[in-house]
Amino acid sequence: MAVRCMSRKCAKIVLWASVAILIVSTIILILFPTIYKNQLKKDIALVDGSLMTNIWRDVPLPIYERLYFFNITNEEEFLNHGKPLNVTEAGPYTYSSRWVKYNPVWHSNGTVSYKEIRTYQFVRSLSIGDQDDIINTLNGPMIIAADILKNYNIGFRIAASILLKLNSENIITQKSVRELVYDGYEDTIIKFAPLFKKGLPFKNGRFSWLYGKNATDDGLFTVFTGVDDQSQTNMINNLNGFDKLNFWKGDSCNMINGTNIEVGPPLPKNPQSYTFYQTIFCRSLTFDYTGDETHFGIPAKRFKPPKDIFANGSDNYANSCFDLVEGRPSGVLDVRPCQFDAPVLLSFPHFYMADPSYRKNVHGLNPNDEAHGSHLDVEPVTGASVDVQVRFQLNLQMSRVRGVFQFDDVLEGVFPVFWVGLEIQLNDDWANFFKSNLNNPKIIAYSVLGGLVVISLILIIISLVVLRLSNIEDDDDPLIDVKEEHRENLSKKVIVPNYDSSGSYEKSNPSTGVSNKGLDLSSETKPAMSKAAEASVLTIHPTTP
To answer: Where is this region: Disordered (predicted)?
Structure first.
């Protein structure tokens, strides 16, 4: 009986403890999404010391810039006979990059200002050749000079043309990759160009396509931190103190929209597009959502440029304010306004998604989406970019200039110089970092809480069964707990009293006929009889034989 009571007591304790665990676990399960969301909001806000800020300040993902040059193979036919340009692609020449935001300053209005220094280092193992490889390419300074000379009278043009000839300048030149990319080379035209056109950025008489872009910044950016509004995380508020550009003809084209491509706000459940700003394009670009991707187990939303992103105003009215030349075929972006009026146009590599007319003047191009398309894959919970492929091509507009005889016979048009592939890719180490900070907390929390709910339910069921069985056993027990030896005495000593006329009784032995008079029911003769048993004794008068 004592063991059974102990079991019932334990069962009750387990029952109530399990009920308490079940209630608490269920409440936490219900509240966990809100708790997780609030903690995540703190982690991804661009505030000093947050998880996302540490990533944002010094982008830890591998960043590469891959350059491909167009090597000219028919110089004579192109220059003297007006033939299309024949090219072969040389590349990639790969540079690893590091993007670091130094000394960010946080403001009370929920913004932070910074300058981002981008450095580039050549990686021979990821390149097709060395930086000393020679490229037969278009002479950028010569073509830019001819374009400037269009604004001068014919006499001045002729004199300039003679000087160019004496200086052995030609439309096509041979330079090393090193000279064409970051190191640059001394050029007579570049030395004197600022005398004829104010504001040109050439320094020290040196020229390269990316000269002055290594270990430098693109200006002072101010972005929203996302503390007040998570949907504004890392959205650009202004650039160099201005909330819009002044390059284009309309306000919509001059708007600085979106992020800087590295980090953005968490994505909505069904995103439609993603907008970002990169200085090289002198405008914001909007990519459209095309589907879901997975990188090292990390889910992402993919965005790609629409076919009309560089369309002219006739094909895409929203681009009307980007049109600088009436009737120019779709597929290129004239960036003259932000490139010191140099005849520079951007497109996708090999004129991918551009009007076919651009490829008529250039032989050797083979555009396709896999090699020349762009995309942006964004992890939806944090808004971090986990796979970036932004590819663009730099082209020069070449025209005949009366008086500059070097251009008398050239084929007019837009010609490619090189194209760049900007790559930011998630690796295994950073995939594990994302998992441990994003997915694992949810998995652990739901596993533990779910396990507690299941275990508590099992314990509740077991406790109820134990209590029920205990009650059934109690119902089967006798009402009077009589010791076994007393039960035996009662069964052996059956007393049949016989009272005489004096009030005494005798107990007759049926076998001997002997009677015992005066025998009373004392404690000695009826040790196992209770008062209730005595009251029920029958008086029996046996007959004489």
So the answer is: 501-545
Q: Quick check: 139 pLDDT over 90?
A: yes
Question: Rounded to whole angstroms, how far apart are CA atoms 119 and 54?
Answer: 18
What Å distances lie between residue 222 and 225, 259, 542, CA to CA?
9, 11, 123
pLDDT tens for each residue of 53-92: 988 999 989 999 999 999 999 999 999 888 999 999 999 9
Q: Would you state the pLDDT for residue 2? A: 46
- Comparing 9 with 184, the larger pLDDT belongs to 184
Q: Quote the CA–CA distance of 192 and 199 in Å, as a whole number.
A: 13
Neighbouring residues of 273: CB distance < 8 A, sequence distance ≥ 6: 286, 287, 288, 289, 303
Q: Report the C-alpha gap between 334 and 414 in whole angstroms.
A: 11
Question: In which residue are the tokens 């690796």 written?
Answer: 427
How far apart are alpha carbons 241 and 156 in whole angstroms? 41
Token representation of residue 259: 């992020």
Please report the pLDDT score of residue 3 as a whole number.
46
pLDDT tens per residue across span 239-259: 999 999 999 998 999 999 999
The region of weakest confidence among 231-240, 292-301, 388-397, 517-526 is: 517-526
Per the CB < 8 A criterion, the answer to whether 144 and 138 are in contact is: no
What gap in Å lies between CA 93 and CA 65, rounded to an integer?
8
Distance CA 215, CA 200 (A): 20
- DSSP calls for 143-196: HHHHHHHTTS-HHHHHHHHHHHHHTT--SEEEEEHHHHTTS-EE-HHHHHHHHH
How would you classify the pairing of strands 111-122 and 85-106?
A: antiparallel
Asked if residue 435 lies in contact with residue 297, where contact means CB atoms within 8 angstroms, the answer is: yes
Helix (H) or strand (E) holding 294: strand 283-295
Strands (E), 73-125: 85-106, 111-122
Rounded-to-integer distance, Cα 224 and Cα 1, Å: 73
